[in-house]
Amino acid sequence: MAEQTITFTIDGVEVKGKAGQTIMQAADEAGVYIPRLCAFKDLTPHGSCRVCVVLVNGRPQASCTQPATEGMVVESETEEIQKHRRNIIDMLFVEGNHFCMFCEKSGNCELQAQAYRLGICAPKYPYQFPVRDLDASHPDIFIDHNRCILCGRCVQASRDLDGKTVFEFVNRGTEKKIAVNAEAKLADTDIDISDKACDVCPVGAIIKKHIGFATPVGRRLYDTEPIGSDIEKKN
Amino acid sequence: MSDTNLKRVIIEPVTRVEGHGKVSILLDEQNQVKQARLHIVEFRGFERFIQGRPYWEVPVLVQRLCGICPVSHHLAAAKAMDLIVGADQLTPTAEKIRRLMHYGQMFQSHALHFFHLCSPDLLFGFDADPAIRNVIGVAAKFPDLAVQGVMMRKYGQEIIKATAGKKIHGTGAIPGGVNKNLSIEERDALLKDIDQMVEWSRGAVKIAKDYTMDNIEDVKPFGSFDSSHLSLIREDGAMDLYHGNLRAIDKDGNKIFDQVDYQKYTDYLAEEVRDWSYMKFPFIKSIGPENGWYRVGPLSRVNTCDFIDTPEAEAERKEFMALTDDKPNNITLAYHWTRMIEVLHSIEKIKELLNDSDLQGTDLVVTGERREEAVGLIEAPRGTLFHHYKVNKNDQVEMANLIVSTTNNNEPMNRAVQKVAQDHLSGVEITEGLLNRIEVAIRAYDPCLSCATHALGKMPLSVSLYDHDGNVIDKKFKQ
Predict the structure, then answer these.
(1) Same domain for B220 and B345?
(2) Residues B250 and B182 occupy one common structural domain
(3) Closest CA to B227 of B411, B440, B423
(4) Residues 6 or more apart from B391 whose CB is under 8 A from it?
(5) Is B202 in the same domain as B233?
(6) What is the end-to-end Cα distance of chain B in Å, rounded?
(7) Residues 6+ apart with CB under 8 A from A40
(8) Poorest-pLDDT segment among A197-206, B230-239, B406-415
(9) What is the domain count for chain B?
(10) Is A12 exposed, middle or buried (CB count within 10 Å of its CB: 0-12, 13-18, 19+)?
(11) Tell me, what DSSP letter sits at residue B63?
C-alpha cells in the first residue's frame, strides 16, 4: 500500500510529508530547517530542550515529537518564536560554564552554532558560574560537566544504541545532572571509545581525549555555513 | 637617615602600555629620589585556573593571556605539550609551519610596538604635546610611515591566519605538531607582498638606527644601566627565536652559563616574590637575588648571539655591535634598534620559509612515550618566555609555572624607572615630561604588562610622589 501523503504549511510554505512523520521529520525532508538541540537523527525524540517548539494552529508544540497532520498550519520563524528560542539558548549559556574561546568543540558545537544562527552575540542573562566537576578518569574519554546542557542524548544513545546504561540523569530542578553508572568515575563503567554515546554530545561535555583542535579553524563543521544549511540545501 | 624622612611619588596609569601599572617614587628630605618602583597591581591567575584542564587544551587556553603576542604563549605551551606526548622531534612540515607562525608573530608584534606605540615618542620628542604625540599624530604628520606600520602588522597577522586559522587566538599548534600545512594559494598570497615587506623592514631599521645615532648623547644615559642578558641560542651560537638552549652573559659579555637545556631551567634560575608587586623577580641562582637579575628581549638577543643567520640582519647586527666595540650594549633605548633588526631578520626568515616546499607537506603530527612534566621555551617578541607544566596520568594539568618576558624584565624595568626618575624629577611635582619619560622607559622594554601578571584592556598607570613622611604630595593618572 502506498504511503499516505499529507500536506501542511510551515510559515506559509506548503510541505508534503508522510503519515506518521513528526513535523520536524517532514520539514527536514522538505528542506525546511527548524532549530533544535536535543533532537538527534538516530534517537527517539523527547521534546525536552524546547528549541524546536513551533506554533501548530496557534498552539506551541515541540516539532520533534508532534505528528504532522493534514492541513495543519505551522509557524516556526516568527519573531515571537525566535525570541523564545534565543531566550532558551541564552539561559543554557549562562546556566553552565561555556568558554567558547578555548573549547575544543568550538566550530563544531551545536549550542554555539544555534546562537550564531539566531544572532546571539552575548547572553543577556547574568552568568550563574556554577561549580561543576570534571571526570578525566577514563583513558580515552573526558567529561566536562561545565558544558553539559542536559539534552539527554548520551543517556539515550548509551541505552538505545549501545545497549548499555553508562549515563543517567540524577537529582531534580537546578540540581539535575548527568551521572555515570558506577560507584565513582567514568573509568569504572563499561563505556568504550567506539560507543555511539561518545559521538552524540552537541556540546563539549563528552569529548574524545588527545584529538582536540586537530581540525583547523576554517574547516570545522559550522565555520563556513550556519547550522541547518545541510537541510536547507535540500530545498 | 631613616625611611620616615622620605617622600613618595606615584605614577598611574601608564598609557600606550597594555595592562595596568603603578609607579611610586619615594623622596628623601632633600627631595631627591631615594627609590622608584614599578608595581604591577593586576592578578590574572592563569597558572591556577588551568589546573585540571586537559593538556591538549592548554596551547589554546593560555594564549588568551595576550592579544598582541598570543602566538608566543600558544607555541611555548605547544612545545611543552610536544614533550608531554613524547614528540621529541616534530616533522619538518610541523616545525617549519610553527616557525613561520612565530616569525609572522614577531614581525607583527614588533611593528605594533615600534610604529604604533613607540614611534610617537621618537618622532615628536618626549616633551611634545600628548595631543599629537600618539599614533593619530603620526598618521597626520607622517602618513607614509603610519601606513607602513599598519601594513607590516597586517602582513604578520595574515601569516598567523594562514598558519593558525585566525589572526588572533588561532589553533594551529597542537601537541606533537600542527593541524594544517600551508596551501599553495596561501603561500602565493603571502609571497606577493614579501619584497615590499623586506624593503619596509630595511627602512624601519634605518629609522631606529638614525634616531639612536642622531640623539646618541641623550639616548645613551636614558634609563640605562649595566646588566646581564639572557636568551635562547642555537647550538652554533646563532640567534634563534623559536628554539635552542639558554645562554646568559654578564655586562661585559662573559658567559655566565651557555647551552643550558631549558628543561633544567630551575637549576639555573629562580623567582623572588616581593610584597609590593604581583609580578615576580627572576634571577640567576649562581649570582643570587640581589645581583642575579638580567634583561631579555631584542637587546639581549642581539647581545647574546654570536651571529644572525640571515645576511641583512647580520650586517645590521655588526653595525649595531660596533657602537659598543662588540661588547654588550646596555643602552635601554637601543631596544628599538635591535627590535627593528629582528623585524628584518624575521622577514628574511619568512621569505626563506615561504620558498620551502616542506610547508606543503602532509606529515603533521608525531607522538611518542608520554611524560608527566615538561618545559616549553620560546623567544617571544618581548623576550624569553617559559611555560612549565606537570600533567597527571588522567591527562590533566596539575601544575603550571609561566615566566613571561615582562617578568624576566621586571627588575630592569624598575631600574629604568628609577634611573629616569633620578635624572628627570625636579622639585616635588610630577610633570607631563617626567610622566611620559617614565612611560618611554617602560615602553622600550614592553608595551604589555598585562600578561606578566596573568588584565585585560589598556594599561592605565598611576604615578604617586611621596614625601619623607610617607604622605602623597602629588599624584597623576593617565589612561
Answers:
(1) yes
(2) no
(3) B411
(4) B55, B84, B371, B372, B373, B374, B397, B398
(5) no
(6) 36
(7) A153, A156, A157, A200, A202
(8) B406-415
(9) 3
(10) exposed
(11) G
- The predicted-structure confidence for B374-425, as pLDDT tens digits, reads as follows 999 999 999 999 999 999 999 999 999 999 888 898 899 889 989 989 888 8
- Mention the CATH class of domain A5-77: alpha beta
Predicted local distance difference test score (pLDDT) of residue B459: 43
- pLDDT over 50 (residue B1): no
| Chain A nearest CA to B64, separation (Å) | 8
State whether CATH 2.60.120.1440 applies to domain A86-208.
no
Burial of B361 by CB count in 10 Å (0-12 exposed, 13-18 middle, 19+ buried)?
A: middle
Give the B window 47-106 contacts with A, CB below 8 Å. 52, 54, 56-57, 59-61, 64, 85
Q: End-to-end CA distance of chain A, in Å? A: 27
Please count the residue pairs, one from chain A and one from chain B, whose beta carbons lie less than 8 angstroms apart: 55
In terms of DSSP bridges, do strands A59-62 and A53-56 run parallel, antiparallel, or are they unpaired?
A: antiparallel
**Does the CB of A131 have a partner CB in chain B at under 8 Å?**
no
Q: Do A216 and B165 touch (CB under 8 A)?
A: yes
Give the model's pLDDT for residue B454. 28
CA atoms of B378 and B243, how far apart (whole Å): 6
Q: Which residues of A touch B87 (CB under 8 A)?
A: none
Distance from CA of B450 to the nearest CA of A (A): 19
Contact partners, residue B316, CB within 8 Å, separation at least 6: B205, B209, B341, B344
Per-position DSSP letters for B14-62, written without gaps between them: PSSSBS-EEEEEEE-TTS-EEEEEEEE-----HHHHTTTSBGGGHHHHH
**A235: closest CA among A5, A11, A1, A61?**
A11
Complex confidence, ipTM: 0.94
- Residue pair B249/B259 in contact (Cβ under 8 Å)? The answer is no
A70-79, B5-14, B62-71: least confidently modelled range: B5-14
